[in-house]
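Memo to structure team: turn this sequence into structure tokens by end of day. - J.P.
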Amino acid sequence: MLVWDAPNIDMTLATIIEGKPTAKERPDLAVLGDWLVDHAEGDDEVEACVFINVAPHVAGVLRGWVLWLLEEGFRVFAKPKRGDSDVDEDMLAHLTDRAAEGDLEAVYVGSNDARAFTDPLEELAGQGVAINVLGFAEYAGGMATLPWLRFVDLESIEGLFTAPLPRLTLETLPEDGRWFEPRGRLGGGDHREVTP
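Reply from structure team:
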């Protein structure tokens, strides 16, 4: 079962690209759905759920995306965005309900929110559920290195993004090294001390 924290992933992407993500920068969830099915056993029932928090001013815009997700086979849980409301508790409640049914073998959590998910996921792992977290290693807190779960960096899923994200990831450098391009102009700031 996949539970996808759309607000958290979108917020993390905004931090990475230093702006509001567009469809071009967002992950292709159809590719994620295929990836998830490919990782299941042949007769496993696969459930993929996207959780969203809908602010009134974006309800119309999100409608088309929700319809597309439903056509792609995703379940969608949507609730109104009120103040600082979030969908974490709803995701955890769904995980708990599915685990109580007794046939939950593996969980894939798409989120970087270590504070909300680490303890509940560890409890599920103790019940024999295989735990997988999908996120961005540099933003996932301790979840990227916990020994009782498998962490999958979202950019490692082939085709999920149309272009590489401008990430400063020193944990996953290629063997031959990698160049990082400047984001500012050399000598263009007032950060240097001026000596009279």
